[in-house]
């Protein structure tokens, strides 16, 4: 083993070998992979080897498409077969709701270039003769599903990496690591020490243990996963003889099972409800190519359904039962990217669908390391979506929930209950008393809407307008006609101060910095000129600033901030729940707040985008003259010990003004009719400010800011796409995001978010349209649950297009 390497990849499963190959392919040939045993010795060797391109996140689906395409590349390069069987597959729907879900998945695939097809149960029977078509409402066919040989695929990737100059060291466990002052790493292994500029944790079953060597507790947990192999089946032989092909793969959502051909029989795997974690606290280092004890009783309910849906299985003998551990993150997606606060430490773990996602994970991470950017929108896989709030027990509960729901529908208005409530604010009980229906954002409870009674405080899950619809409408009316009160503690809040704060922020952000006591809206860009943030920046006084942004992205943005902090002169903190907030919004909000403060709040004395610190009643608060509702309003930020008193004061003093609590769903409806975008939907790292309509918040006259040169090139080249607001001729269902936008019989864009704008009484969609197909006067269609609905571009916001209410 050599003494130095540019990158040390820890773990020799399919993910580690993919990262190694892609780094070497990108030109970083001084890279080394260390594996504690043999290649594939963790979860990879006993994987079922299935692959597919469908994913709930279309950006992850793109990387899954790439993964399937990669296999031919590494076969040709290495001469090692991947055992690729591109059989095609059917996803079977047993209910109308599941058929709706498949129609939506098929629609997403239209703009991803996928070739799926919605088919009848009879057609599914023709393609997959083992099913009983009477059990199903229909299906979706995907020609790019199949299975492969896990051992051959991993070795093809490893050999391809070696051919490009990478090193692989086997039977050599990493036992410790320590970081030098320059950010490089001293790694101790069983075969000696190695100095690495970068570490990549691809530890799989041991990712937690590798993370703990540097004080990191990754939110991953291994679950026992079973599949069985049948004896040879005459039905399989008949299909092979009649078609000259293998039996295609099948995924049965109601049975929670998947199948494929294995030799002359079939493989059947389950995601059972009675799921079982494995090695919940620590993974033993001596666990090798072992299997776990099978437990047919645990999967019996799934098998019972499976025998009804696939009658031939009931007569088949079982040749072998495989029970092995696979790791999962709480939401089932991989954990990929750099770790905040740990220079040159990267992760690629929790990749439970390794043969669907491993290639894309390796490509994205290698791009990130070599070029400073993953080259794709990988938010759904970014490790920064989890933070310090994630505990071992919380991870355990959420992973078990995710596993048990693997093949279940997640409705757009469905909030999952495991490990809740977990994080709450001081007014949580006040909101419970007022019949709040809560959502979970980064483990924090926040109100979605308020029901008229405790018995009604629950969502009826649906793809269509549901029981919350009239109540959200009433909340919107309260804001537009009087005054509404919203908790905003789930926003991210950052404090920046010090003699170097102004210069640092001026370089970090493309907009001009505000004067003292003022705020500005500003995006944040990466070096490629793409959107990586959307903030309100306030200057409290002199060199003291505050930034407000998306709570979802707090870890993501702190990672970016910290990596660019100067060695001295700038103090940065994320307040988290050390600063909590309430927002009052609506035409009566100024009157309400004026009753409680000893200062003039007129539009001349405290204008739009003003920011100051003063007392509200007896409570010290930061007050900003802004709201995301697009109406007159104020954001009030206080220490947590003051929030209950502030809440009680506002509700008491606003009673005669008809003050009403409103939640996140009403806020969404209000921002849609103002054409306000949101982080992770309209604003993501694949869009420029020119495309997203944020160019008015960019000062190209500034001589230097991150991304400036790329931004100017993008401006001169012209936008590839344009963000637009659509009014949709919807019936009983509104867009939820990722629906295709049609014009003249072609898909020309995609929806980013939407819903019903109650005040404007319109179904609204925000989405991107290809620049060449953008015409404000043209008719469009947006596909909602398999049906194209007419849509038109709104030339201006539906509510208060001149902003007089917001500024007045």
Please give a handful of descriptors for the protein shown.
8-stranded mixed beta sheet; Gyrase A, domain 2; globular; FAD/NAD(P)-binding domain; 9-stranded mixed beta sheet; Elongation Factor Tu (Ef-tu), domain 3; alpha+beta; single chain
Kindly describe this structure:
With 808 residues, the protein is of the alpha+beta class. The chain contains 21 helices and 38 strands. A hairpin with a 2-residue loop joins strand 37 (780-784) and strand 38. Helix 2 packs across helix 10 and helix 13 packs across helix 18. Residues 721-800 form the Aminomethyltransferase C-terminal domain. Belongs to the GcvT family. Its EC number is 1.5.8.4. Residues 427-702 form the GCVT N-terminal domain.
Topology of helices and strands:
Layout (H helix, E strand, L loop, with lengths): L3 E7 L3 H12 L5 E4 L15 E2 L6 H21 L10 E5 L2 H17 L4 E3 L1 H7 L10 E5 L3 E2 L2 H14 L3 E3 L4 E6 L5 E5 L2 E10 L5 H6 L8 E10 L3 H10 L5 E4 L4 E6 L2 E6 L6 E2 L17 H14 L1 H5 L2 E11 L6 E4 L6 E5 L4 H18 L20 H13 L23 H6 L2 E6 L2 E7 L18 H13 L2 E4 L4 E6 L3 H8 L9 E8 L5 E11 L2 E6 L4 H10 L7 E4 L5 E6 L3 H6 L16 E6 L2 E6 L8 E6 L1 H14 L6 E2 L2 H9 L16 H4 L15 H10 L3 E8 L11 E4 L2 E12 L4 E9 L9 E5 L2 E7 L10 H4 L1
Parallel strand pairs: 1-2, 1-11, 2-8, 4-13, 11-19, 22-32
Antiparallel strand pairs: 3-7, 4-6, 5-6, 9-10, 10-11, 12-15, 12-16, 12-17, 13-14, 14-15, 18-19, 20-21, 22-28, 23-26, 23-27, 24-25, 25-26, 28-31, 29-30, 30-31, 33-36, 33-38, 34-35, 34-37, 35-36, 37-38
Helix pairs in contact: 1-5, 1-10, 2-5, 2-10, 13-18
């Amino acid at each position: 083993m050599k003494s130095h390497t540019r990158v040390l990849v820890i773990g020799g499963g399919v993910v580690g070998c993919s990262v190694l190959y892609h780094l070497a392919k990108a030109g970083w040939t001084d890279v080394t992979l260390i594996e504690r045993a043999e290649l594939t010795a963790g979860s990879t060797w006993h994987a079922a080897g299935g692959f597919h391109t469908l994913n709930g996140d279309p950006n992850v689906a793109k990387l899954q498409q790439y993964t399937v395409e990669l296999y031919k590349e590494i076969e040709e390069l290495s001469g090692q077969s991947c055992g690729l069987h591109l059989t095609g597959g059917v996803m079977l729907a047993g209910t109308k709701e599941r058929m709706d879900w498949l129609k939506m998945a098929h629609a997403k695939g239209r703009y991803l270039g996928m070739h799926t097809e919605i088919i009848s149960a009879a057609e599914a029977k023709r393609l997959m003769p083992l099913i009983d078509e009477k059990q199903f409402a229909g299906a979706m066919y995907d020609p790019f599903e199949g299975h492969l040989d896990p051992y051959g695929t991993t070795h093809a990737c490893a050999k391809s990496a070696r051919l490009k100059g990478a090193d692989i060291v086997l039977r050599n466990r990493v036992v410790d690591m320590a970081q030098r002052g320059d950010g490089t790493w001293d790694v101790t292994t069983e075969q000696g020490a190695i100095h690495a500029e970068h570490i990549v944790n691809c530890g799989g079953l041991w990712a937690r243990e590798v993370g703990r060597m540097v004080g990191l507790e990754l939110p991953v947990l291994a679950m026992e996963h079973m599949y069985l192999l049948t004896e040879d089946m005459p039905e399989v032989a008949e299909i092979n003889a009649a078609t000259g092909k293998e039996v295609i793969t099948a995924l049965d959502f109601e049975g929670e099972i998947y199948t494929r051909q294995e030799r002359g029989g079939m493989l059947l795997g389950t995601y059972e409800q009675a799921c079982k974690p494995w090695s919940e606290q620590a993974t033993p280092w001596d666990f090798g190519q072992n299997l776990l004890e099978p437990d047919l009783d645990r999967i019996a309910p799934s098998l019972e359904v499976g025998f009804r849906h696939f009658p031939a299985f009931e007569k088949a003998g079982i040749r072998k039962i495989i029970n092995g551990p696979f790791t999962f993150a709480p939401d089932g997606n991989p954990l990929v990217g750099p770790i905040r606060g740990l220079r040159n430490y990267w992760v690629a773990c929790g990749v439970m669908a390794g043969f669907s996602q491993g290639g894309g994970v390796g490509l994205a991470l290698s791009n990130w390391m070599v070029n400073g950017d993953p080259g794709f929108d990988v938010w759904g896989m970014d490790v920064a979506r989890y933070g310090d709030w994630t505990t071992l027990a919380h991870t355990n509960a959420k992973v078990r929930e995710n596993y048990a729901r693997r093949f279940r529908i997640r409705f757009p208005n469905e909030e999952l209950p495991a490990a809740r409530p977990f994080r709450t604010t001081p007014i949580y009980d006040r909101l419970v008393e007022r019949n709040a229906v809560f959502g979970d954002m980064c483990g924090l409870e926040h109100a979605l809407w308020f029901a008229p009674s405790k018995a009604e405080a629950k969502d009826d899950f649906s793809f269509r307008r549901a029981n919350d619809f009239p109540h959200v409408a009433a909340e919107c009316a309260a804001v537009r006609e009087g005054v509404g009160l919203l908790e905003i503690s789930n926003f991210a809040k950052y404090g920046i101060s010090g003699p170097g704060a102004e210069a640092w922020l001026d370089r970090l952000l493309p907009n001009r910095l505000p004067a003292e006591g003022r705020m500005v809206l500003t995006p944040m860009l990466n070096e490629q000129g793409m959107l990586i943030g959307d903030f309100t920046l306030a200057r409290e006084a002199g060199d003291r600033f505050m930034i407000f942004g998306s709570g979802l992205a707090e870890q993501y943005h702190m990672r970016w901030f910290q990596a660019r902090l100067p060695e001295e002169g700038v103090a940065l903190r994320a307040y988290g729940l050390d600063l909590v907030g309430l927002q009052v919004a609506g035409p009566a909000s100024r009157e309400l707040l004026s009753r409680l403060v000893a200062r003039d709040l007129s539009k001349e004395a405290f204008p739009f985008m003003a920011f100051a610190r003063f007392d509200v009643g007896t409570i010290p608060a930061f007050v900003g003259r802004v709201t995301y509702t697009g109406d007159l309003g104020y954001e009030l930020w206080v220490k947590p010990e003051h929030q209950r008193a502030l809440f009680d004061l506002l509700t008491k003093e606003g009673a005669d003004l008809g003050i009403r609590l409103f939640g996140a769903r009403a806020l969404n409806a209000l921002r849609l009719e103002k054409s306000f975008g949101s982080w992770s939907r309209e604003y993501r790292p694949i869009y420029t400010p020119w495309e997203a309509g944020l160019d008015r918040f960019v000062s190209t006259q500034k001589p230097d800011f991150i991304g400036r040169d790329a931004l100017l090139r993008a401006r001169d080249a012209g936008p590839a796409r344009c963000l637009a607001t659509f009014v949709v001729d919807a019936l009983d269902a509104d867009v939820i995001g990722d629906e295709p936008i049609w014009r003249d019989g072609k898909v020309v864009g995609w929806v980013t978010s939407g819903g019903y704008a109650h005040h404007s009484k319109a179904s609204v969609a925000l989405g991107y349209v290809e620049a060449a197909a953008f015409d404000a006067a043209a008719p469009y269609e947006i596909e909602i649950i398999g049906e194209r609905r007419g849509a038109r571009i709104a030339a201006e916001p539906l509510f208060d297009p001149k902003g007089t209410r917001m500024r007045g």
